[in-house]
């Protein structure tokens, strides 16, 4: 008489049809058509009613727990066979059962190995997921669609204390309306992202509206956040704003954060000791740096002590309309801050209108080093510094323009580039980079906007 023990496992459909209560094991004995006796051990899945589940790990755990039950049943069965009681199976069947037990053990070991392999794969997948999340985060920094809504403007509460329109001093600074149309190519350069520190500018995102000025004095101006605030009273959340329209521009508005800024509620208005010329001011380490009206004098004003800390003439600098940006506005001297410190972007009589870049000592305002470029200042609309490189904007009015030059102070060389840039409101009077926020700040025809930027690996050499 031959006895064959067949073990049925993993075939959930059969399991579930044989056994209804989960977690229970049973033994079924039947003869097949050839007259041989079949022993069938079945264990129901503790979790699943059918095989439709897709969680491999859960399934594997289920199989393992079922196997444990099966082992218990088999050993119980062997014990019963040894005692020769209750089961009706003789001791001579022991060999076959032992074989079945060995097979179960072998299969359990195989499953355990599979499970370990699966665990490793899960670990690997989790690592990949973390990487993808990081990538998604970096992609989010260059949004494809304009994320900001104009809801702020719709629900705007008109503040009592936002920059008031002083009807007596409505004189405009010089403005020009020549438009340098430069067609924007569609190519966005490829490159590796560098989310920390420096890199080359690869692309500029859509303008995101932060605030719209509500009076004529807000046609153009300067708004900033300090990339490196030193104290606790003013932080990297504080927003600073100067409306630059008027004969005697001396008010510096401080807002607690971008939210208060977008609502138009300043926390403080500081009165500057000297009037401001144009939109070239910058904020760095708790000081406002600006050009004194109708002069080449630079002023460092501490917003903490609320007093003038240093003043110094910028040697040979042109001023008051001699070498402004293309839009005019007495933008002869533009101050900028980046990872490497404080810079002045201007021209001199000697340079004949070509842009001169000087690195300044932020304490004394003295020139540490200067570079002369071949970029005619009046041909570009604005400029900013990023990682020791000067970038220029081709047009202040074209809705689709480009960043068209880069000059690297590390190598003393420049080249033309073509990075698409949008002047959504068609009169961009200020452009500054904030390296802490990793954004460009601009003042575009009453609209204070930010742009996300994408930076990439520093390329070697330039032409
Ligand atoms: C602003 O300052 C806080 C606290 O000092 C810091 O955690 C945060 O990263 C800063 N944010 C930026 C954009 O610099
Ligand atoms: C990112 O910038 C840092 C700081 O300049 C630099 O050390 C690093 O090599 C850059 N990484 C890449 C991928 O370009």
Automatic annotation (TrEMBL):
Keywords, comma-separated and alphabetical: Calcium, Cell projection, Cilium, Coiled coil, Cytoplasmic vesicle, Disulfide bond, Endoplasmic reticulum, Extracellular matrix, Golgi apparatus, Lipoprotein, Membrane, Metal-binding, Mitochondrion, Mitochondrion inner membrane, Mitochondrion outer membrane, Palmitate, Secreted, Signal
SMART domains reported for this sequence: OLF
Annotated GO CC locations: cilium; cytoplasmic vesicle; extracellular space; Golgi apparatus; mitochondrial inner membrane; mitochondrial intermembrane space; mitochondrial outer membrane; rough endoplasmic reticulum
InterPro entries reported in the protein's UniProt record: Olfac-like_dom, Olfactomedin-like_domain
Disordered as annotated region, ranges: 104-123, 147-170
Residues spanning the signal sequence: 1-19
GO BP terms: osteoblast differentiation; signal transduction
Biased composition (Basic and acidic residues): 105-123
GO molecular function, one term: metal ion binding
Regions crossing the membrane: none
Subcellular location: Cell projection, Cilium; Cytoplasmic vesicle; Golgi apparatus; Mitochondrion inner membrane
Keyword RNA-binding: no
Lineage: superkingdom: Eukaryota
Olfactomedin-like domain ranges (all copies): 197-457
Protein name (Swiss-Prot/TrEMBL): Myocilin
Taxonomic source organism: Channa striata
